[in-house]
């Protein structure tokens, strides 16, 4: 129902008039009459799209030379807000597949399942427990599915990976969003063998729901190779002569009795039958040595196993195994999916140069396989651990599925922040780029206009927006006199409200707004501004996990903030443990200065620490720069550090010339410390440490398996 229709209906009811039968179709549209999932907090699709804040994408770094027409994107931020920004790119013609069609061709998502199901992590801990359940989780996913539908190309499709606990709810949600007629398949993935459980049937599968945006979608069948057992059972004959000597074949019927439309009656090799093919075809089969004769002399056709593509695709996948402890592709990331699974999905439902999107990117399996299959890709995740895991994975790719074979250099990709920004880099932008960022940050329309000789840059919620030029004169500020000057020139012609965006230090008053006459002048402060009147929800930070159990918690952020480096004090050193030298870092103090209005309670020492990530040999064995690429080797969670008296340790032999340690707070801010080996009291290990570390990890995995 449109706002105009709502107002008209209210007027009819207030006037006490009869409601005509024509209103029945508006109030109860046919597509909503059959069934619908109803629950508390369910929003209209129109409101989801309209009220989601599109946050700008701030480029952090580009790996490799940037593509001219397209470069792949790895984005740190809340996927809902990021998808709204990507939708703006689609509308602007900047989200395009290689064939020129707009929109994402394939979406694969493997979100937290909200089932309280436990998964083993790299340290035998429960690595996955979802805290959002019931209606809250359903709406969390529904909002994202609405945006994903809008992002899809007209012939695009989506694979939604989930377990048995929520599939019945999400099937109804997907039917509502895409339409029941757009349901293609429910795919059963048998991910493990049966296990002992005396009270229930063993749960050994996940499900993938496949939907298309329209009636047209890409489907490239991926045939499954025959098993040795299947071949031995079905292809019992072995060719003994000719060019196909040694090949296995089966014999198939050539008799056409009962064949619809009749067959071909004639005598062949002394036997009269109604055959499936004319005599000319039979003669050709004979010349090509494709006929097999039974002991009674009846001709049958040979079907060589080498001529067949394999088993045709079905909705039961039992030939793909999960990532085990010895797998080359293992990233030690909870709930990591295998490359073989994503290979089948991406190869089936996209073509070369198509855009593949994973909005819950996790360990980056979708992105790695998309790269190997020559697809364009976009990955989004709200976890710093995921972002650094993916960065490491993409820069250490192997060409073959399963991360085997020769090294593969990825095409250029860029890392972006969305919702958590580096203010110092913004200050380096040219004025026009700064102006555009300020408008985009607060969801303003870029619509320059003048009122009473005053130049405004855009509009927001029906009011005019001015991006204050704080660079025009040194020390220039926005004070109450500034507002009165604007009001004197523009008067009531500006309407009921005006917005002024500027760096926070440029404002001389602390209020969110000041009334001048009948006009309310709002201060949109950068780096931080929260005005409850302007937003449907209060701002919420991107929470980072403090223990391995929380790595895959469902996280939702609203709004934006700016990076504020935590304050940090630590001690380092080495000691002897058994026969080996051991390095250690003891965290003495850690405080986050992030301005997040979720609580006014003062945070205690180390309470805001999320994790510490280490690269033991930053930039390689002979690194002499602070501008290298962080190559994640190990992560230590705050929960474990607290139990170890806030100390982490590592084998000293792993240390190269320099270590990079990244201390992450619960809001995603980082304190990066480049520590030379000498500070540990060690001679730097000039040998490439990767082989040593890989050997230790492999040994550790073997121990876990045993």
Helix content: 10-25%
Largest sheet properties: 10 strands, mixed
Global mean pLDDT: 84
CATH class term of the largest domain: Alpha Beta
CATH superfamily of the largest domain: Vaccinia Virus protein VP39
Low-confidence stretches: 115-132, 621-625, 686-690, 701-706
Going by helix content, strand content and strand pairing, the class is alpha/beta
Number of helices: 16
CATH topology of the largest domain: the name is: Rossmann fold
Count the strands?
33
Description of the structure:
The chain is α/β, with parallel strands linked by helices. It has 5 domains: 1-33, no CATH class; 51-194 and 204-220 and 318-418, Rossmann fold, CATH 3.40.50; 228-307, no CATH class; 430-534; 564-705, Sandwich (Immunoglobulin-like). It contains 16 helices and 33 strands. The strands form 8 sheets. Strands 1-18-2-15-14-3-4-6-5-13 form a 10-stranded mixed sheet, with helices on both faces. Strand 24 (513-516) and strand 25 form a beta hairpin. Helix 4 (79-91) runs parallel beside helix 5 (134-151) and helix 9 (339-349) crosses helix 10. The longest helix has 18 residues, at 134-151. It is globular. The chain starts with a helix and ends with a helix. The model is unreliable at 115-132, 621-625, 686-690 and 701-706 (pLDDT under 50).
């Amino acid at each position: 129902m449109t706002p105009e229709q709502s107002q008209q209906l209210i007027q009819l009811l207030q006037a006490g008039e009869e409601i005509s039968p024509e209103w029945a179709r508006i109030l109860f549209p046919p597509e909503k009459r059959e069934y619908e999932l109803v629950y508390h907090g369910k929003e209209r699709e129109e409101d989801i799209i309209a009220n989601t804040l599109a946050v700008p994408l701030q480029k952090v770094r580009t790996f490799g030379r940037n593509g001219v027409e397209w470069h792949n994107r790895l984005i740190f931020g809340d996927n809902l807000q990021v998808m709204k920004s990507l939708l703006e790119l689609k509308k602007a013609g900047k989200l395009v597949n290689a064939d020129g069609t707009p929109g994402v061709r394939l979406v694969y998502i493997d979100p937290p399942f909200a089932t309280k199901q436990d998964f083993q992590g790299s340290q035998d801990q429960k690595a996955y427990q979802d805290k959002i359940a019931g209606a809250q989780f359903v709406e969390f996913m529904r909002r994202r599915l609405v945006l994903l539908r809008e992002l899809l190309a007209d012939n695009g499709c989506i694979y939604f990976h989930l377990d048995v606990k929520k599939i019945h709810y999400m099937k109804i949600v997907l039917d509502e969003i895409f339409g029941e007629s757009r349901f293609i398949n429910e795919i059963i993935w048998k991910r493990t063998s049966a296990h002992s459980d005396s009270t229930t049937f063993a749960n050994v599968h996940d499900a993938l729901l496949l939907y298309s945006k329209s009636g047209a979608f890409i489907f490239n069948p991926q045939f499954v190779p025959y098993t040795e057992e299947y071949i031995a059972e079905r292809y019992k004959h072995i060719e003994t002569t000719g060019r196909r000597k040694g090949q296995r074949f089966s014999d198939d019927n050539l008799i056409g009795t009962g064949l619809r439309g009749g067959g071909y009656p004639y005598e062949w090799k002394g036997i009269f039958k109604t055959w499936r093919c004319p005599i000319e075809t039979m003669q050709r089969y004979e010349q090509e040595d494709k006929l097999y004769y039974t002991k009674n002399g009846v001709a049958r056709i040979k079907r060589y196993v080498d001529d067949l593509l394999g088993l045709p695709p079905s909705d039961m996948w039992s030939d793909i195994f999960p990532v085990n402890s010895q797998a080359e592709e293992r990233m030690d990331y909870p709930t990591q999916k295998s490359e073989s699974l994503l290979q089948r999905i991406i190869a089936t439902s996209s073509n070369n140069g198509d855009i593949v999107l994973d909005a819950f990117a996790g360990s980056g399996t979708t992105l790695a396989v998309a790269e190997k299959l020559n697809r364009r890709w976009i990955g989004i995740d709200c976890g710093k651990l995921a972002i650094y895991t993916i960065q490491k994975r993409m820069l250490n790719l192997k060409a073959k599925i399963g991360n085997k074979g020769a090294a593969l250099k990825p095409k250029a990709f860029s890392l972006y922040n969305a919702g958590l920004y580096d203010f110092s880099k913004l200050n380096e932008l040219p004025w026009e780029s700064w102006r555009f960022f300020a408008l985009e940050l607060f969801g303003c329309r870029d619509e320059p206009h003048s009122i009473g000789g005053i130049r405004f840059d855009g509009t927001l919620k029906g009011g005019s927006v001015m991006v204050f030029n704080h660079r025009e004169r040194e020390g220039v500020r926005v004070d109450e006199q500034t507002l009165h000057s604007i009001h004197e020139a523009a008067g009531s012609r500006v309407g009921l409200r005006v917005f002024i965006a500027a760096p926070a230090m440029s404002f001389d008053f602390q209020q969110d707004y000041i009334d001048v006459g009948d006009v309310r002048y709002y201060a949109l402060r950068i780096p931080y501004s929260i005005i409850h009147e302007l937003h449907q929800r209060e701002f919420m930070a991107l929470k980072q996990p403090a223990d391995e159990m929380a790595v895959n918690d469902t996280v939702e952020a609203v709004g934006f903030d700016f990076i504020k480096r935590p304050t940090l004090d630590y001690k380092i050193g080495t000691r002897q443990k058994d026969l080996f030298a051991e390095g250690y870092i003891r965290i003495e103090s850690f405080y986050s200065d992030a301005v997040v209005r979720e609580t006014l309670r003062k945070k205690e020492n180390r309470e805001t620490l999320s994790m510490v990530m280490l690269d033991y040999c930053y930039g390689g064995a002979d690194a002499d720069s602070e501008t290298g690429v962080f190559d994640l080797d190990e992560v230590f969670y705050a929960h474990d550090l607290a139990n170890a008296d806030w100390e982490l340790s590592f084998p000293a032999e792993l240390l190269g010339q320099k270590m990079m340690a990244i201390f992450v707070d619960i809001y995603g801010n980082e304190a990066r410390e480049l520590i030379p080996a000498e500070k540990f009291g060690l001679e730097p290990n000039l040998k490439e440490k990767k082989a040593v570390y890989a050997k230790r990890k492999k040994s550790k995995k073997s121990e876990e398996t045993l």
